[in-house]
Design goal:
Chain lengths: ~160, ~500
């Protein structure tokens, strides 16, 4: 089974980079002997490009920032399934910038017969600030990084023995 | 009753792009604009850092066009360090950039702009996306889109050093030289890109131009604005994405300005309005006359359509044929040897495909240039840096980077005018016009309101993704109609249950 760990976000936009920072930490923990079937990467892309990155993998662990309006504390860790993502993507057509949604892109990938992952784990951290340029996340989000990193490593350990 | 209508996407990223429509006392549309979130503190973030980090920092600004920021930053460094890149470096950069255009224009047509036409503007929004396009035109074409993007992403990675955030740009140089083996791969990709671009233009012909309703829509007054147009041109006044002079033509097509990007501040000013933090650039020499089109208004536009309008033609033969056909088909007459501008905003989608073909042809020219494998891709730097401006045509408009440093090359001042910024005023005008067609005397025809407004701004391909990524992804639109007392009197939203 080929697994892709992808940290999403912009690492110089305060909390937006939480996913990328987790990916860096996971990479560091895995050390130089990352098993061949695991790829850890960062990305600042959505939709189609993100889907394209996933081609050929069986399983994806996606780490991202999220802002919900449900009164969650900053730093709260959400574990979502692809189905959850589908639920919170109520339309495929909107004011969005330059792309299509990940769900639509994944559906398109499957429809095209591309080898798309079957298993998705999505970990999203409730963030406070994604509008100011800074390399440093806010304290609550910074505190979530080691926790999420451990969650990702745990998930990887289920399949392989991490060195 | 004074009303304010807000179209507000509900998303994890608040303010990711929302539309506000203001009604006057009579209930007519007074003003409208697309709110684009402003990321804060970029200048403070960069000041104090070495200037040579800018190509790597600025490509983090945006997840959509890191290649454009990387290139504008690299060119700003050329100017800052006063170093002329060798000819081969310019060619490699342009080749890299053309490949980027092939991916970027492709995604816009097939995933964003195209669905309105391929499936129809009245089609179910749930279907009006790339998946719907694939259903309509077939899996083979869907694979062509994916393959086009893949081969060009491979080249971007090969020449840019990284897949998503390129790192190859150096002052006066480029850190990757092209071997014969690489050259062959690029040449092969370029041939395929040309075939794909020609196919896409044929698809546009068959689906859009062959349908009278669509042509009527394109040329309709609701999607027409007579503004000034900006674009970068080469020494023959042909469209160029990588380098050249900035040319501005007036609404009748006469050259109004032609300047080096280092002089941008002499020609472009920014209007501040009390109701938004957005700044609206305009032509200084004409002046700000409000959100108006016409010869007396300094509003200009910088898009694929603008680039074609600002140029006398395309630098490659096949693209030139389509250029001629574009203007002939849309009824433009030649005056003093050049076509008068096409003002129909929806024609931007067609112009984008002509640019796609040009990018593909240019790639082939550069990939077969005998000099392209010259390994001398670095230049020594001997001067003390002070100030530099670099610009490129980003897919969404002219992109300008301006840096000042101390004598050690540490940044003291940074100013960027990003592609979409140029088009803030035209976008506001287009949203207003679209809203006017469906809102009169306080009566809102909600059916189709969102679609019409979306079509009006989508052709500009406005970039709001500076916050980079997307979870959950795209956002639903919601229209709130709010009266003068701040009460929501009606809500229209585009949800799928």
């Amino acid at each position: 089974m080929k697994t892709l760990v992808v940290g999403l976000g912009n690492p110089i936009l305060t909390d937006d980079g939480v996913g990328v920072k987790v990916a860096y930490a996971v990479e560091e923990e895995l050390g130089p002997n990352i098993p061949e079937n695991i790829t850890v990467t960062e990305a600042s892309v959505g939709g189609l490009r993100l889907m394209e990155l996933m081609i050929g993998y069986d399983r994806v662990i996606l780490i991202d920032a999220i802002m919900t309006s449900n009164g969650h504390d900053y730093g709260h860790i959400h574990e979502l399934s692809l189905e959850d993502l589908r639920q919170i993507t109520p339309t495929e057509h909107s004011a969005s910038a330059h792309d299509t949604s990940l769900i639509t892109a994944l559906d398109a990938g499957v429809h095209l017969g591309l080898h798309m992952p079957k298993e998705f784990e999505i970990i999203a951290v409730e963030v406070e600030n994604v509008m100011d340029f800074s390399e440093d996340p806010t304290p609550a989000v910074a505190a979530a990084i080691p926790k999420v990193t451990e969650m990702v490593l745990d998930s990887l350990r289920k399949e392989i023995i991490v060195h | 009753m004074k009303q304010r209508i807000t179209i507000d996407p509900i998303t994890r990223l608040e303010g990711h792009g929302k539309i506000e429509i203001f009604l006057d006392e009579e209930g007519e549309v007074e003003n409208a604009y697309l709110q684009i979130p402003e990321l804060r503190g970029f200048e403070q973030f960069t000041v104090g850092r070495p200037a040579e980090e800018m190509p790597r920092i600025t490509n983090r600004i945006c997840g959509v066009c890191p290649e454009a920021h990387h290139m504008a930053a690299t060119k700003a460094l050329d100017a800052l360090f006063d170093v002329e890149p060798p000819s081969v470096v310019k060619k490699i950069r342009e080749l890299f950039y053309a490949s980027f255009y092939c991916t970027d224009h492709t995604v816009h047509f097939y995933a964003l702009g195209g669905p309105d036409f391929v499936l129809g503007p009245e089609s179910d929004p749930a279907e009006r996306n790339i998946l719907g396009v694939i259903h309509k035109v077939g899996v083979d074409i869907g694979m062509e889109v994916i393959n086009c993007r893949k081969r060009n992403h491979d080249i971007i990675k090969m020449l840019g050093g990284r897949g998503i955030h390129p790192v190859s740009g150096l002052p006066g140089g480029w850190s990757v030289a092209i071997t014969e083996e690489m050259r062959k791969e690029i040449e092969d990709a370029a041939h395929k890109n040309i075939a794909f671009a020609e196919f896409s233009l044929k698809l546009f012909d068959d689906v859009v131009l062959a349908n009278k309703d669509y042509v009527d829509l394109i040329v309709s007054d609701a999607f027409t604005h007579k503004t000034y147009y900006m674009g970068t041109v080469d020494e023959n006044n042909h469209v160029n994405f990588y380098d050249g002079m900035i040319r501005v033509v007036d609404p009748e097509g006469k050259e109004f300005l032609k300047y080096h990007s280092k002089d941008y501040a002499e020609h472009i000013a920014e209007r501040v309005e009390p109701w938004t933090y957005l700044k609206f650039p305009y032509l200084k020499a004409v002046g700000w006359k409000g959100f108006e089109d016409g010869m007396d208004s300094g509003v200009y536009c910088a898009t694929p359509l603008s680039r074609l309008n600002a140029a006398d033609g395309m630098a490659t033969p096949k693209a030139q044929e389509h250029f001629d056909r574009f203007y002939e088909t849309l009824g433009s007459k030649k005056v003093d040897g050049r076509y008068q501008p096409v003002h129909h905003r929806l024609a931007t989608h067609w112009a984008r495909l002509i640019e796609l073909l040009y990018a593909a042809e240019r790639m082939l020219e550069l990939a077969t240039d005998p000099e392209i494998t010259d390994p001398n891709v670095r230049m020594p730097i001997t001067t003390t840096p002070r100030e530099g401006v670099g610009s490129v045509e980003a897919p969404r408009g002219t992109l300008t980077h301006h840096y000042k440093t101390d004598e050690n090359g540490i940044l003291t001042d940074v100013n960027l005018i990003v592609g979409t910024t140029n088009n803030y005023a035209p976008i506001a005008m287009s949203v207003k016009k679209a809203a006017q067609s469906l809102i009169t005397k306080g009566t809102v025809i909600t059916e189709g309101l969102l679609n019409t407004i979306e079509m009006a701004f989508r052709n500009y391909d406005p970039c709001m993704s500076c916050a980079t990524h997307s979870l959950p992804g795209q956002m639903p639109l919601e229209v709130n109609i709010i009266n003068a007392d701040g009460e929501v009197i009606e809500t229209v939203s585009q949800y799928i249950d």
